[in-house]
Amino acid sequence: MRLVAHPTTVPAGKVTLRVVNAGSLTHEVIVLPLPATGNAGERAVGADGRVSEAGSLGEASRTCGSGAGDGIAPGAAAWTTVTLRPGRYELLCNVPGHYAAGMYAELDVTG
Ligand SMILES: [Cu+2]
């Protein structure tokens, strides 16, 4: 499993994420700031197979819709608009087990 960001660098301000689920399972995308010394993929995974969403800046998890929902069905798109300051962020899927399986990507925001 993987999550790919195109482009990987965007200007600060309002950023619209358009997520296409090209897989065969339900997925989602959560936006979290990366800690100054951390990299994508390094978050602690809990016993439930998920990472903490504390500090989340938004998510795209609604099939053919905006914002938070029950997950993006296979073949469907989802979207959300977040306001991002310059920095490093992590896009990740928090369906149990998916983060540990590689569903994360760094997104860099320039000033
Ligand atoms: Cu997933």
Automatic annotation (TrEMBL):
<dbReference type="InterPro" id="IPR049544">
    <property type="entry name" value="SoxE-like_C"/>
</dbReference>
<dbReference type="InterPro" id="IPR033138">
    <property type="entry name" value="Cu_oxidase_CS"/>
</dbReference>
<protein>
    <submittedName>
        <fullName>Sulfocyanin-like copper-binding protein</fullName>
    </submittedName>
</protein>
<dbReference type="Pfam" id="PF06525">
    <property type="entry name" value="SoxE"/>
</dbReference>
<keyword id="KW-0479">Metal-binding</keyword>
<dbReference type="InterPro" id="IPR008972">
    <property type="entry name" value="Cupredoxin"/>
</dbReference>
<feature type="domain" description="Sulfocyanin-like C-terminal">
    <location>
        <begin position="10"/>
        <end position="109"/>
    </location>
</feature>
